[in-house]
Write a structure and sequence with these properties.
Layout: H1 2-15, H2 30-37, H3 46-61, H4 72-83, H5 86-100, H6 105-122, H7 140-143, H8 146-149, H9 151-168, H10 179-200, E1 205-216, H11 227-247, E2 253-255, E3 268-270, H12 282-309, E4 313-323, E5 326-336, E6 342-347, E7 386-388, E8 391-397, H13 404-416, E9 423-429, H14 438-453, E10 457-462, E11 467-469, E12 475-478, E13 485-494, H15 499-503, H16 506-528
Parallel strand pairs: 1-2, 2-4, 3-4, 8-9, 9-10
Antiparallel strand pairs: 1-13, 4-5, 5-6, 7-8, 10-11, 11-12
Helix pairs in contact: 1-2, 1-3, 2-5, 2-9, 3-4, 3-5, 5-6, 5-16, 6-9, 6-16, 9-10, 13-14
């Protein structure tokens, strides 16, 4: 059992970046599926062994989590410990459906895997990175079914084909039948490729165009409190913007990454005017004076940058708000008009756990004294749509584009308000990861969001990868890894419709429901079983 689990873990690891050997993903689950098919597991700690192997697999796969600060290594271990649960869960629930319910392994394996991926995408704010389907990011015909079933649908297909491979391998006590697994795999792959070919043959562009400059600096970020490094980063982005405009002066929009709108202090703007401040409270008067000064500096910066760019800008920074004695701090995407006025902003709705907030930190503020991040961020409440020359742009920040249901909900909310976006924009600071494979993982998620929602997606990323992804998932432009770049690109609105936008995670959600029912039924059987009776033996299906 251990060798099978190790083999599957190794192939799954190598299917993801930095190796990115995507064909391995189609056979990586075979070892786990073979363990599901066994009539009995080894008697001594089988699930503990599976968990330990999965834990080591995830430590290697998400090693980039440790890079920003030494304390992040602790978070990496906790995250790997959580993610490792899903392999033994997959084997456990699949065995229930195969050996208790007598369902076909060809059906059980993809249902169980997909259901658990959905659970991972939602639980504890969700971790929808490195889904098995993400390994196929370069295989565009396969990816197109994501506009039907999301990225989870691609994972379903991969595990279904893996289950067919497993059935072709001889196994004692099981009748070998080549016809059924070969037919199932052929039909599934053929249908996927036909649909993908049809989608890719349609020109998605429509109507208005925007000429956009995506500014990518190369600024490795870390928790060190060195504001002079922030100053240099800001100056680098000003220099790159000046160079972009000098080379081509007719941009409709210039986009900077997340948190790069800095000066001689951390990137800060403030809501003004604040609530009336009692005259007798000197400390609040001093705070008001400080707020006014920083707000004016921010307006000066915005006017200066707009004059240098000679175009509207979307920039990322912090936005602090003081109202009724409550101090809130947001991660914001801000729209600066060509005249230098800061006219709109979007507050990040999905802060990153342990990166932008600590669980229970709102109730126990002293927890932030144990972390290098300082005060936690407040979550925004509403999506936004910026209007640029008649083209509506919906911004997202950092890892928000890794959460499929969040992006879908934002688009639907904006559409219901009559602000249906034409183009998606992600501003992100991936300088925390120092050019590691986290950049590839993040870009893969963005490709899937573009296909799922059938809208072009622009990315301005510090250290990379800045990109222009069209509505079919093609990379129309891509920046380098950990280097400066100016990506000049023209983005078109898309006329394609997205079934996923209408139905969302309905199909993978049904898979999750089956998983929950299987666990619930097995738990109920264990509770109702008389204690003096041993568990029923099962045989292979």
């Amino acid at each position: 059992m251990g060798l099978l689990a190790i083999g599957s873990a190794l192939m799954a690891w190598m299917a993801f970046p930095p190796w990115a050997l995507w064909p391995l993903a189609w056979i990586a689950p075979v070892g786990w599926i073979r363990i599901v098919a066994w009539s009995e597991l080894p008697r001594k700690y089988p699930y503990r062994i599976l968990y330990a192997i999965a834990f080591l697999q995830w430590v290697v796969m998400i090693q980039w989590v440790r890079l920003p600060h030494w304390t992040a290594g602790i978070g990496m271990c906790f995250l790997a410990a959580y993610l490792a649960i899903y392999v033994p869960l997959f084997i456990g629930v699949a065995r229930i459906m195969v050996h208790r319910w007598r369902w076909s392994l060809l059906l059980v394996a993809p249902i169980a895997w997909t259901g658990l991926e959905v659970a991972r995408g939602y639980l504890f704010t969700g971790f929808a990175l490195m889904l098995l389907g993400h390994t196929q990011v370069s295989v565009l015909p396969v990816l197109q079914i994501a506009d039907l079933f999301g990225a989870y649908g691609v994972s379903f297909l991969i595990v279904l084909v893996s289950a067919c491979f497993e059935r072709l391998l001889p196994m004692r006590g099981r009748e070998s039948s080549i016809a059924v697994p070969v037919l199932v795999a052929f039909v599934a792959l053929a249908a996927t490729l036909v649909y993908g070919g049809m989608r890719l043959s349609v020109d998605s562009s429509d109507g208005e165009q925007l000429k956009v400059a995506l500014i990518q600096g190369s600024f490795d970020t870390q928790f060190d409190g060195d504001y002079q490094r922030n100053v240099k980063a800001f100056q680098d982005y000003v220099r790159l913007t000046q160079k972009a405009v000098a080379d081509q002066s007719d941009y409709d929009l210039v986009i900077w990454p997340e948190s790069m709108f800095t000066a001689n202090e951390p990137m800060v703007t403030y809501d003004v005017p604040l609530q009336p401040i009692p005259e007798w409270d000197q400390s609040l008067q001093e705070l008001q004076q400080r707020v006014d000064q920083m707000a004016e500096r921010t307006r000066d910066k915005a006017r200066w940058i707009a004059s240098e760019a000679n175009a509207p800008l979307i920039v990322g920074g912090s936005w602090e708000h003081l109202q009724d004695g409550t101090h809130s701090r947001y991660n914001a995407a801000m729209l600066i008009e060509k005249n230098g006025e800061l006219t709109d902003r979007y507050f990040k709705m999905h802060p990153v756990m342990f990166g932008e907030y600590l669980p229970l930190g709102g109730w126990i503020p002293s927890l932030y004294q144990l972390s290098p991040m300082g005060q936690g961020l407040t979550a925004g409440l509403h999506p936004k749509s910026f209007d640029i020359d008649g083209v509506r742009i919906a911004p997202s920040i950092c890892f928000e584009n890794t959460v499929p249901h969040l992006m879908r909900r934002q688009i639907k909310t904006l559409a219901q308000a009559g602000q249906d976006p034409d183009v998606l924009v992600t501003i992100t600071n991936d300088g925390w990861f120092w050019g590691s494979s986290a950049l590839d993982v993040h870009l893969a998620c963005a490709v899937f969001r573009a296909i799922e929602l059938r809208r072009p997606l622009l990315i301005a990323a510090n250290t990379g990868f800045s990109a222009h992804i069209d509505a079919d998932g093609r990379l129309a432009a891509k920046g380098p890894r950990r280097e400066e770049a100016i990506l000049s690109t023209t983005v078109n609105r898309s006329h394609l419709e997205s079934p996923y936008l209408l139905v969302g995670d309905l199909f993978p959600g049904l898979c999750l429901l089956i998983v929950v029912v299987a666990f619930g039924a097995e738990g109920w059987n264990r509770v109702k079983r008389p204690k003096h009776l041993p568990p029923k033996s099962v045989s292979a299906s």
